[in-house]
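Bug report

Summary: structure tokens for VOC domain-containing protein differ between web form and batch submission.
Environment: batch mode, default settings.
Steps: 1) Submit the sequence below via batch. 2) Compare with the web form result.

Sequence submitted:
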Amino acid sequence: MIWGQPMAIQGLPPSARGQLWWLIGRQRRVQLEFFHLTNPAQRPLRDDWRCCDLGWIRFGIAAPDLDAAKAVLARWDIPITGEMAQAGEPRRLAFRDPFSGCFVEIMEDSDVIPGGRAPHFHDAGPAVVYATSSVSDLAAARDYYSNVLELDVTDDLAIHGPEHEALWSLDGARSESFVVKGGGFLLEIVQYLDPVGRPKADDYTVADQGILNVAIVSRDLAVVKKAVDRVRNAGWRASEMVTNGEAGGAYILEPEREVEIGSLAEKDEAIFGYVPSTPFLGQMF
């Protein structure tokens, strides 16, 4: 459970209440964070939401056995929205997560996974490969990630081509993109030209359903503070900086710039969910 002063990192008052869980695969310092806020209450995505609408829209996982993943989806009655198998590429499938509303892509793990096969640090099979943000201005997004956040931006790596849009029911969609590399994880920043992505509602809050943000993490709090200063100096709105010893961070709260910037020392990795612990009961079935 989270409440009180830590809620300031999400731009919320101390009266806000939430619960969170973490899932990790085989990579070090890579996790999926799931949280549910009861105050303010969560609202679902719009009924006609599509995987081109603005914001973080999907993420991809490499799994050692794609057929086993399909069997689990079938067991839980989660429909697959598309499958693809092409020479020189990993087998792929996609589904819409019934809880977050976003799309999830599962790739069969191999040496041709975009960005390369993720190394094993934890004793687990899956690896989180990428997350995708849909933006309205690709040039402005490139400046943000390259010059403001000072991350490694490349045009030499493609995670998807036009043929893959059918996986999330966007057959024939046209887009332009670039990739941000860091720590064995990829960010795919894409501008959809047709269909054009629609912005979030004017009254959107961090409690609403969907992918809130992606976190970029350093071991050095001073590096994080400088990054947050650069964001604010560039005119973007950030939450209050919350710190606890060597750990600290802030959320960038602007539309299409939704990133969490944080610091985390190695000794604090277990506290923040980066070390395996007792599995959920659901993992037994």
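Above is the batch result. After comparison, the two runs are identical; trailing whitespace caused the diff. The CA atoms of residues 215 and 260 lie 4 Å apart. The chain has a mean pLDDT of 93.
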